[in-house]
Amino acid sequence: MKRTSVTMADGRELIYFDERDDAVRATVDQRELPPPPPPAQLRFDALTDEWVAVAAHRQGRPLLPSTAECPLCPSTEQFQTEVPADDYDVVVFENRFPSFSGESGRCEVVCFSPDHDASFRELPVSRVRTLLSVLADRTAELSALGGVEQVFCFENRGVEIGVTLHHPHGQIYGYPYVTPVTRRYLDAARRHRDLGTGTNLYADLLAAERSSGERVVAANEFWTAFVPYAARWPYEIHIAPNRQVPDLAALTETELDAGAPLWSEVARRLDGLFDLPMPYVAGWHQAPVRTDRELGYLHLRIFSSRRAPGKLKYLAGSESSMGAWVNDIAPEQAAAALRAVNL
Amino acid sequence: MKRTSVTMADGRELIYFDERDDAVRATVDQRELPPPPPPAQLRFDALTDEWVAVAAHRQGRPLLPSTAECPLCPSTEQFQTEVPADDYDVVVFENRFPSFSGESGRCEVVCFSPDHDASFRELPVSRVRTLLSVLADRTAELSALGGVEQVFCFENRGVEIGVTLHHPHGQIYGYPYVTPVTRRYLDAARRHRDLGTGTNLYADLLAAERSSGERVVAANEFWTAFVPYAARWPYEIHIAPNRQVPDLAALTETELDAGAPLWSEVARRLDGLFDLPMPYVAGWHQAPVRTDRELGYLHLRIFSSRRAPGKLKYLAGSESSMGAWVNDIAPEQAAAALRAVNL
To answer: Residue A182 is nearest to which of B308, B320, B322, comparing CB atoms?
Structure first.
């Protein structure tokens, strides 16, 4: 893999990750762009002990532009996009409308296909493998930034989930704080370690899932995909390495090799459930950068809000106001349905 | 107000709350109904230290039935609904597809208008006043049930937020546990009390909002409506009594009288923002039934996902996976816009 970092017209960084080692990336971004917006304001919510970012500049970001105006496609002579080159394998660049930037974090966009109409599920496994290397690279690099406390790599898929750009892409957030969900996990993991046998909470849970097998969806020598016992969403899947590591950057090449086909398989099983593209969020849960590294356990959590072909689960009053979840699909039933999909 | 409790065809309870003291409620539910479904299963999520309900029977519940088949309209000779009578003021009944039931809680539906096409915003203030009394009644009664640890009264409004029945209605959940959001608030409030001046966290925050006035939307002698400093949603409003009380059942008649016009005003300001019905969740945050009563502080939290006429805020990767919120509207700007609405 060849890595070429260039500077965009407004000073943002863009990095090409090419599968061919002889790729040349000399095209210059010649657009006239306004300077990047000011960083979001971080506000502390005393009622919940959590940070909220207020990013008023994001209201102006584009909403579902047509293919001809897609900012994530390669550039053409007629239309210059965020990516100066006329083709790419995987490209990463700083978000033009970031939620976190400057001294308080960083937001990046990851385009994993130049094809506007592609989807993650259709990528060759070799491209998924490249993408895993890219996410490991970004995790290591963002972890080294002074303002970043946690790195989150994720993909939002489908207009049902609020996607504002159709072109297949992921995002990377370098948060200036340890996120609320991760803090809750760390609190539980610390209690488990201190009161119990000194073991890792997620490792113990994964061992139990592997031993029971009831909710396992797919597995290989290095990874396990399963529906968690207390799944919140109709279709929710964890993909975790069998060895405890804090983040993507800590995986071996062998583990990365084995992770790509499993991730691809789970994505295809998900879309095969109703023979419909499923709206989903797929996000890599990683340990914080500076604290509690040994309590963390890397895993990808994919969940879909689709509970039936014509029906979505919405986060209504109970979930969104009280954090009290009701799941209409039994996790064992979800796992069996995912296993039964013909690939 | 006259209160008449009757039994539905499948054994569920239904209560008429009539504004006229001479109302007679003798009509009997003569439908043939299957027995109520089994209670949901409560599963403990060790990774987050939270309970999740699995209620597989809810998949079959009706989705947006037409007016002619609405189960919340009064009954007619042609179509018998959940409400046997041919008219009502406010009626409450046990949910036919409950998330919590039996030994582990209770779910109720609250119909606050017999008019299928009405909305909360259009109710006369006298009906909002009746509704407040009904919610106080339900809070007291559900709090007395052995399996209930917290009572939550809420309204989901709009298909954008996942409403499955158009007929205007609210819901009441009697949870068998203290909900995650309330637990987080209580943890913060306990720390504030123990490390600080011994005062109530919410009371101190409310006093600061009243003193600054920058984010206050409306107020009267007994209540204050404001946008919180660290609002998560584009338009989010708290309505709180100026006196600290744990729940609706603890309000005086005078406070209930003063609360109705303010709640109504805020609902009208919200719909006036873009001259469009706003999707929203409006939920009464109340102290737990048995514990930490003195740390609680009753307030109604209303939030809308609409950030502009054609745009909704979705809970995508950052919010739904990491609990890390990004709000595109500054709370001061939201408060000013709400104040500026012509009523």
So the answer is: B322
Give the pairing of strands A50-54 and A41-45: antiparallel
CA dihedral A180, A184, A190, A195 (to 10 degrees): 160
For residue A328, the chain B residue with the least C-alpha distance is B56
- Tokens representing A119 are 């989807």
Please tell me which residue in B57, B166, B169, B238 is annotated as part of the active site: B169
pLDDT classification of A160: cutoffs 50, 70, 90: confident
- Region B97-101: what's the mean pLDDT? 92
User: Can you tell me the mean pLDDT for B264-287?
Assistant: 97
A181/B322 Cβ within 8 A: yes
Please tell me the distance from the alpha carbon of residue A237 to that of residue A267, in angstroms, as a whole number.
10
Is the CB of residue A64 less than 8 Å away from at least one CB of chain B?
A: no
- Specify the pLDDT at position A165: 86
Beta carbons of B108 and B95 less than 8 angstroms apart: yes
Give the whole-angstrom CA distance, residue B334 versus residue A339. 47
Considering only the beta carbons, identify the residue of A161, A205, A321 that sits closest to B281.
A321
Is A202 in Cβ contact with B173 (below 8 Å)?
no
Interface of A with B in 90-149 (CB under 8 A): 99
Q: How confident is the model over B117-161, as pLDDT tens digits?
A: 999 999 999 999 999 999 999 999 999 999 999 999 999 998 887
**pLDDT attached to residue B67:** 74
B235: distance to nearest CA of chain A, Å?
Answer: 13
Give the three-class secondary structure for A263.
helix
For residue range A245-260, list pLDDT tens digits in order. Answer: 999 999 999 999 999 9
> pLDDT at residue A340 above 80?
yes
Q: What's the pTM value of the predicted model, to 2 decimals? A: 0.95
Q: Which domains does chain A have, with CATH numbers?
A: 2-180 (3.30.428.10), 182-340 (3.30.428.10)
* Residue A302 falls in which region: left (phi positive, over 0), alpha (psi -120 to 50) or beta: beta
Determine whether the interchain pair A329/B163 forms a contact, defined as Cβ–Cβ distance below 8 Å. no
CB-closest option in A99, A202, A229 to B326: A99
d(CA B90, CA B69): 20
Residue type, B264: S
Closest-CA residue of A relative to B331 is A54
**Residues 6+ positions from A92 with CB-CB distance below 8 Å:** A14, A15, A17, A108, A109, A110, A111, A134, A138, A172
Distance CA B216, CA B239 (A): 10
d(CA A139, CA B193): 39
In chain A, % of residues over pLDDT 70: 98
Contact check, Cβ <8 Å, B283/A316: no
* Token pair of A223 as six digits: 């990874």
Q: How far apart are CA A228 and CA A154, in angstroms?
A: 19
Chain A residue numbers touching B310 (CB-CB < 8 A): 63
CA B256 to CA B133: how far, in whole Å? 7
Active site residue B169: yes
CB of A297 within 8 Å of a chain B CB? The answer is no
